[in-house]
Amino acid sequence: MRHKNSILLLVTFLLVMSLPMTAMSAAKFTLKPKISTTYRIDDNFWKAEVVEREVKTSLIRPGFELGYGTEKSSVLLDYTTDIYYYRDRDDLLPGWNPASDEDFVGHTGTLDIKTRPTDRLTLGLSDSYMLTRDPANADRLSNAVTRNEYYINRLTPMLFYNFGAKFGAGLKYRYTWTNYSEDLSEGSTENRIISDLVYNLDKSTSLDFEYQYWNRDYSTSSDYDSHQVKAILRKKYNNFILEAGGGYHNRAFDNPGLEDVSMATWNVGLTGQYPTTAVTPTSYFSLGAESNLNDSGAGNVYYETTRFALNAGHVFNGKIPLDLKASYQNSDYETQMGLTPAGTMELRDDDTRNIEGSLGYILSEYLVFKVIGGYENRDSNIAGRDYTNNYLMARLDFVISLGRR
Description:
Blueprint: H1 2-17, E1 28-42, E2 55-69, E3 73-88, E4 104-115, E5 121-132, E6 150-162, E7 167-180, E8 188-202, E9 205-218, E10 224-237, E11 240-253, E12 261-274, E13 283-293, E14 303-316, E15 320-339, E16 345-362, E17 367-380, E18 387-399, E19 402-404
């Protein structure tokens, strides 16, 4: 990690030094102190099939956003301290550990730097760091329900070169380090290279030929190498962006006892918002579907995923935000066996659904209150893997903007 941090500091220094010094006087600095408080109740906090426990969660998240921008460069730092308290609503049975054992202080931070030394070349660096219990932060297609505490850091330097009106090429390298506290789960490191060749058919339509290679290294589970090629079509039309892609993904394991996994991968999505360029639009929506393999496979657990997701929202009368989220994911396991209720051995297959709605009120320019309710359900062919969880929460967000030119 000392080596990786040295690289981060060096790249950050080079990017900052490349910022046009003549533009410093015209730079815009912004500072946004913020804090949010959330109170949540889950009726099946541990997402268990039989023994459900109702738990109350209190979350306090103080933090800040710090920004710097010129005509050609920008730096954005976003950080929060995430203070979690858990309490059981009912008396505990003998042998149960109290939910308060899960109390912890987490961290969420992101750094994004971009600069254009020339009209054709863009350089960038992004870094994200989390101390969390949410398995979805380690793998976007996660199907896990564990609440083990872990650190995850992603460091991504990148460059993009525009050859002219028709062609552009990009290159990214991403290093991901995942480490679980108390060795409750297995961590990993990942090195990933992403290359893009973009052809602009016209001002609103582009075709991206993407190739990704990555290696994931585990201490116990099998290491693997993944190769993925994909063609992605993007089309902009007024307030909407359409994206459709298709390709092929092959994953080879170092353990000779595990067979390679290959599949056709695809995605399609439609997003839109109004006003088009607003940071906080009055209306927005995104509708998407995709199919691919999960990345995080501690214990050699991998599955093909088909996922559908919907997000939409609107602010009524400039004061009342209404939001809706819904998702469905099928996880078709390729490497893990399990015992079904019928007593036969077969590959695990899960269907997971989630729906969430929120209604809020904008009390002032700086203060927003929301009430959020949701439903989660997983249906599995393996005994003990089903669960249903209903949750309700109230959240108060406070953000104040301080800036100067």
